[in-house]
Design goal:
By secondary structure, the chain is mainly alpha-helical. The protein has two domains: 40 residues, no CATH class; 98 residues. 67% of the residues lie in helices and 0% in strands. It contains seven helices and no strands. Helix 3 packs antiparallel against helix 4. The relative contact order is 0.06.
Length: 165
């Protein structure tokens, strides 16, 4: 027990200082680290269930979800691919409702892999970006058209072509 004080941090050392036997020390350490592991696992489970895509790209969102699942696995809790797909779909915004509906209403024999779902969602992301780009361009063109149409009027009323008022 004389070597352990040099290996333990002061925080942990303060929690095991009252141990009188090595057996008691190991039981206390196991209890401390089990609690920390359980707390960490609970945090990871909450994170995976509450993670939302938000402004992340689909690839970043998938990477973050997969990273969290990997951390869960390292802590001893394995998330099935089916559950991961569920969490991913739940975290998507309303613009993904059509593709989520399509994925979730498939025949149970038409099982899609995680990679296939990722590809479908990337495709939907591109479509959404194209839609927003097209919508943004059309609003910009409409505003320019309207501004140029009214340049010659200078406040004399619509269609008043008589410069004398």
């Amino acid at each position: 027990m004389t070597v352990l004080p040099t290996l333990l941090s002061t925080i942990i050392l303060s929690q095991v200082a009252c141990c009188t036997t090595s057996h008691e020390l190991w039981i206390t350490l196991e209890h401390l680290f089990t609690l920390k592991s359980k707390t960490k696992l609970l945090q990871l489970k909450i994170q995976i269930q509450s993670l939302r895509k938000g402004s992340m790209t689909m690839s970043d969102y998938f990477a973050k979800m997969e990273n969290t699942v990997d951390q869960c696995a390292m802590a001893g809790c394995f998330v099935s691919e089916e559950d991961l797909v569920f969490y991913i779909l739940v975290g998507l915004g309303s613009e993904y409702v059509p593709i989520v509906y399509s994925i979730t209403t498939r025949n149970s024999t038409d099982h899609l892999s995680l990679n296939e779902i990722h590809a479908l969602l990337l495709n939907q992301e591109r479509r959404i970006e194209q839609l927003y780009a097209t919508t943004s361009d059309s609003h910009h063109l409409s505003a320019n058209f309207f501004a140029h149409e009214n340049e010659g009027n200078h406040g004399r009323g619509k269609g008043n072509l008589n410069p004398r008022g």
